Each structure stands twice: as C-alpha cells, then as structure tokens.
Amino acid sequence: MLILFKVIIVALLLFMVVNLFRALFSMLRNDPNKPPMSRYLGRRVMISAIVLILLLIAASTGFLPLHPRPY
What are the tens digits of pLDDT across the range 8-36? Predict the structure, then answer.
C-alpha cells in the first residue's frame, strides 16, 4: 500500500512538471485559440497543494513512516 502511495505522489509531481512545460509553450506561442498560460499554472499550484496535503495527512496518521529525530 505504501508503494502505491509513493507512485501516486510521483505521478502527481510529474503531472506538475508537465503542466509547467505546457505553460511555457503556451506562453511562447501566444495563440488566442489555445487555453491561456494561467490555466496550466493554476493546475500546477493545485496539484502541489494536493501533494502537500496528502503528505501531511500521511505523516500525521502514521501511514508514511518518518525518520526519528537525531537527538
């Protein structure tokens, strides 16, 4: 189950990078018929917020094992 969680997190991070590059190409082309750059950047911010919330929930519930403090 932990492996599946890690795969989902990595897939979401890859989706963030894809949206970042799509925003770059949208900015460079500046085609009025295509979606605006802000759409892709908004998706990127939304996915990063989802990843952060998932990691916080997994860490707080004990599903994701964290390293102990060194002291």
Answer: 999 999 999 999 999 999 989 888 888 88
Structure tokens at 64: 């994701």
Query: Which tokens is 12 given?
Result: 């979401």
Distance of alpha carbon 23 from alpha carbon 29, whole angstroms: 10
**In contact, 47 and 19? CB cutoff 8 Å:** yes
pTM of the model: 0.81
The CA distance from 26 to 37, in Å, is 6
Please check whether residue 9 is in contact with residue 53, taking contact to mean a CB–CB distance below 8 angstroms. no
Query: Would you say 51 and 9 are in contact if contact means Cβ atoms under 8 Å apart?
Result: yes
Mutual orientation of helices 2-29 and 37-61 as an angle, nearest 10°? 160
Number of H helices, E strands in the chain: 2, 0
